[in-house]
Specification:
With 430 residues, the chain is α/β, with parallel strands linked by helices. It has 2 domains: 313 residues, Adenylosuccinate Synthetase, Chain A, domain 3; 97 residues, Adenylosuccinate Synthetase, subunit A, domain 2 (Orthogonal Bundle). The chain is built from 13 helices and 20 strands. The longest helix is centred in the middle third of the chain and has 23 residues. Inosinic acid binds next to helix 4.
């Protein structure tokens, strides 16, 4: 058995795409288990950037199976556009499989996501407006439309009729928005259904059979722990479970079949959208991090909020997801800093907290406790072995491992596939 889960430890955008892509070289199957087109993974191959939203990053490897699991909310328009884009660039998409149990993002979900969040005023989450929350809401309200429903013309027609009647009432009453047209949506989605049909199957059977046959399966998390609906900075979170446990409900795989968990940690912190961010730097340091790291959203183009590494958050992610190894990304972005800081605790009243409090009021009153490190101030992108890293960089990484209680498994020193230092050779199998 050889299964690895990749999970984000911060607020997303840690560079999971690159780590998944790197490990996908060894995997036979790559599975997405939560989220939807709110995700934005950029993978660099031979100097070319591939931006992925719904498709698993394994798509860039010939011969891999790429599974969109039942826990993902599927926007057919986005998936099909992405597949077309890949084919145009000569990438084979025939190995894609989409769960018949996954829920379908509808036009009213996207519309209500934007309208609903704006209406929250100062309390808005700052969602990606891709309909993710409203689609999961319909699932939990047991009125959602699944891929298997979309495949059955009559079932889809009936469900759409009932749902649209209700959504149009809500659109008018809550937002003064004109009603959406049934025939237009029905026609559009019937077109999607026919194009998606060859890729739809029971992915639970597929993935479990692959694991049982000893094939290497990689589970690719989107978003991250601090955006998890239960474990993140609620309510400023997404609507799914990016933690490693999300694999069990989002792909139909029992916990005992998960071998290893890799937590992706950006060497500093970023966040898009609203909500607490204890180590945020609203000053020239934050600007320097944003400029050096080109920190702008893949999906929305929004400038990301930036700050120092928060080891409390990474430690918390490690506890929840059982992280075996950290994959530390974008260490090279810190190449030109004289001093680097790391938050190792939160000072709250007379205590120093080492886990993330639930109450946002308490989080707001926490003062980060920083340790300061000397910067290495040289270009590390050409380094390929841990031993060759400057001692100042090693000190920073070693302290990170100490505070979080998680071993360093991979260090990424640049966006390209080969700009990677592998410390742990046993991530996939022995
Ligand atoms: P939603 O997932 O569109 O509902 O947005 C909820 C929150 O999660 C917002 O703060 C988004 O900015 C954030 N979010 C969603 N997807 C990503 C991602 O892939 N990277 C970073 N933040 C994300």
């Amino acid at each position: 058995m050889s299964t690895v889960v990749i999970t984000g430890t911060q607020w997303g955008d840690e560079g999971k795409g690159k780590i998944v892509d790197y490990l996908a070289q060894q995997a036979e199957t790559v599975v997405r288990f939560q989220g939807g087109s709110n995700a934005g993974h950029t993978v660099m191959v031979n100097g070319e950037a591939y931006k992925l939203r719904q498709l698993p990053s394994g798509i860039l490897y010939e011969g891999t199976h790429n599974v969109i699991g039942n826990g993902v909310v599927v926007d057919p328009e986005v998936v099909l556009q992405e597949m077309e884009g890949m084919e145009k660039r000569g990438i084979d998409v025939s190995g894609i499989r989409i769960s018949d149990r996954a829920h379908v993002v509808m036009p009213y979900h996207r519309l209500m996501d934007g309208l609903g969040d704006e209406q929250k005023g100062a309390g808005k989450v700052g969602t990606t407006k891709r309909g993710i929350g409203p689609c999961y809401m319909d699932r939990d309200d047991r009125i959602g439309i699944r891929i298997c429903d979309l495949m059955e013309k009559e079932t889809f027609a009936e469900k759409l009729k009932v749902n649209l009647a209700r959504k149009n009432k809500e659109l008018q009453a809550l937002y003064g928005h004109e009603p959406l047209d049934y025939d237009k949506i029905f026609g559009e989605y019937q077109g999607y259904a026919e194009r998606l049909r060859p890729y739809v199957c029971d992915t639970i059977v597929l993935v479990n059979e692959e694991i049982d046959a000893g094939r290497k399966v990689l589970f690719e998390g989107a978003q991250a722990t601090m955006l998890d609906i239960d474990y993140g900075t609620y309510p400023y979170v997404t609507a799914s479970h990016p933690i490693s446990g999300g694999v069990t409900v989002g792909a139909g795989v029992p916990p005992k079949k998960i071998d290893k968990v890799v937590g992706v940690v950006k060497a500093y912190c970023t966040r898009v959208g609203e909500g607490p961010f204890p180590t945020e730097q609203l000053n020239e340091i934050g600007e320097k991090i944003r400029n050096e790291g080109h920190e702008y959203g893949v999906v929305t183009g929004r400038p990301r909020r930036t700050g120092w590494l928060d080891a409390v958050v990474v430690r918390y992610a490690g506890v929840i997801s059982g992280i075996d190894y950290m994959a530390i990304t974008r260490l090279d972005i810190l190449d030109n800093f004289e001093e680097i800081k790391m938050c190792v605790g939160y000072k709250y009243k007379d205590e120093v907290l080492t886990s993330v409090p639930a109450s946002l009021k308490i989080v707001e009153q926490c003062e980060p406790v920083y340790e300061t490190f000397k910067g290495w101030q040289c270009d590390i992108t050409g380094i390929r072995s841990y031993a060759d890293l400057p001692s100042a960089a090693k000190k920073y990484l070693e302290r990170m491992a100490e505070v979080t209680g998680i071993k360093v498994g991979i260090v990424s020193v640049g966006p390209n596939r080969d700009e990677t230092i592998v410390v742990a050779q046993d991530i996939f199998g022995k």
